[in-house]
Amino acid sequence: MQQIIEGYLGKSAEGKKSKMPAKLDFIQSASGLFLGLFMWGHMFFVSSILISSDFMYRIAKMFEGDFIFGTPQPWVVSCIVFVVFVVFVVHAGLAMRKFPINFRQWQLLRTHAKVIKHSDTNLWFIQAITGFIMFFFASLHLGLMFFQAHTIDPYGSGDRMLQMWPFYLILLFAVELHGGIGLYRLCVKWGWFEGKNAKASRKTLKKLKWLISVFFIALGLLTMAAYVKVGLSDDHKAGDRYVPTYMQR
After folding, report:
1. CB of 91 within 8 A of CB of 32?
2. Residue 147 needs a FRET pair 20 to 30 A away by CA distance; which of 12, 94, 204, 209 works?
3. pLDDT tens, position by position, 21-31
């Protein structure tokens, strides 16, 4: 009966509002923070190809646990991908609560945005659109990494990038814009780095957010170009696994 009353009124029998929306907001924020930081770390790791193919290979095998097991174990990467995918699904499911579910709600939201002309509202629209794109593109990418973890090396990643570069180009912009805006909104929502002047700190955070987004998008484009170059090289055939120079001696 308690749950029925709360379901109809949004309040308990004692007149107290449910704490569930706040709890769900916290989980959404925590999962978004995890995914945003993971995104930045992931970009730095995959950009190791810019240093050398051997260095990228060492990074890839490190995540496969070769320093623990003695030999690379791709299933370790699959486990990491599975955890990230679960967090991704939870975050996406919670974020969908705030999406307009019919034309009338969408119309009200657009009218509200036009009337107040607030830049943060426009950022929310960008985040919503990129989030929708990521739901499909990031899911496919994570699926590929889960089932093909053994192909993550300079040759395998180069071949994949050569074949699917339009896909990864869209994913790059969607992920970096969505993640950057999301982390900025988290700082504003929870008052992180607010200082004594909230208005000034928000302005600074917004500039920092765009600088970081531009940096990671530029890094991503350079990384994509490096993998395409490896994919186009005559050093291997499609399906070959990379053998680092220190193992060729």
Report:
1. yes
2. 94
3. 888 889 999 99
